[in-house]
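Appendix B: complex inputs.
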Amino acid sequence: MSALISMRGVSKSFGSFQALRDINVEVAEGEVVVIIGPSGSGKSTLIRCINLLEQYDAGDIFVDGVRVQNGANLCKVRAEVGMVFQQFNLFPHMTALRNVALAPMRVRGLSKQAAEERAMKLLERVDIKEHAHKYPAQLSGGQQQRVAIARTLALEPKALLFDEPTSALDPEMIGEVLDVMRNLAKTGVTMIVVTHEMGFARQVADRVIFIEAGQIIEENDPGNFFGNPVQARTRAFLEAVLHH
Amino acid sequence: MRIFEVFFNIRVLKDSIHVLLLGLQLTILLGLASIAFGMILGLLVALTRLYAPPFFRRLAVVYIDVMRALPLLVMLVHIYYTLPFINIRLSAFVSATLAIGLVSGAYTAEIFRSGIEAIPQGQFEASKALGLSGWRMMGDVILPQAFKIVIPPLTNNAIAVMKDTALASVVAMPDLLKQATQSQAVHANPSPLIGAALLYLLLLLPAVRLVNVLEGRFSAGRRRTVL
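Resulting structure:
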């Protein structure tokens, strides 16, 4: 089975701080991988390398067989990998509908009408159709994040990256966003999710990766990962996050 | 009342109002041309300074620094009086537009740069993650937001440019000030100069007010915007 996303020997430093050390990850099509770890461990940096929002110093990253690197192909690769951000990053000067329709028009060359039809369907899918003509500032955090998810889906990407998608949300809004993500996972979308939501990891992930100090410490299916963690550091981390 | 006789001489004002209005027309035309030229130039220089290869970035910095250091009048005199020695002869209007626009372009570039730099990094990242090209990202996402931020300083700059057009009278362009000084010489009376000053105020006071209103509105709008 060839991987949809593969990272081989990826390393990355910020000055003298080594954020990632020799990372090897293969993600198959349709797989949901959840990455957990303490803050500053390199989780976000890892997925931000996949669409080259961070330049990696060493190693190779391939998305569907194409190496992720600067150059003419970069925009194409990025369009195949959607990203959902912690801070939503919706475009504040556009309505929700326009936020979702923009990339299909500009990147995929759809007509305005076709793009807006697709956008409307996606807004319906994340259950926010009635707010299609509102601006981001008029929406709650949870609603904004759902629009942001619709926006990344609009390009029909091969994989979705989630960078702590619920960390900036008020507690009562976390559920609605996780529900959308849960439904996405069921439809067979390839997902890599950085999160602190252990419940989500346990229920939805096919595989959980624990990362600390820029290194992969342990990876396993959620049952074994949470039930019988092998590494002492994994156990210590789970102790800390599950019993607070 | 001798004061009125000298400074607000109705007969002289009546005689000169026609040429004053002609001058005003040219002043407005020159102002608009210079503003447009300066804006386009400023935007290009700002983008060059921020995103071009290092050599061109440095070039943009040098341009901005030189233009901000060189007096506008010196620039204008060189374009009008020095260039003919290398066989470049430009009309007074073109010379003035070029000089004012080149200098205004440097200030406008700094305004645009500050506007672009005020846009949160997340907006750039979201655009890139969607696969938008650099130009699309600028045109669809960054510049529309940056423009909104810089409308007040841009308007301020436009007012400054309008005022600077008075310097064009030095290269014999029959703008408002030139018409007024000529008229003053003909009538041996300063009333046309007073008239010109009033026309400048009439043109620019509303613009100055507008900047205040805009600053109030946009800062309030920015406070409401949640990202």
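The two ends of chain A are 40 Å apart (CA to CA).
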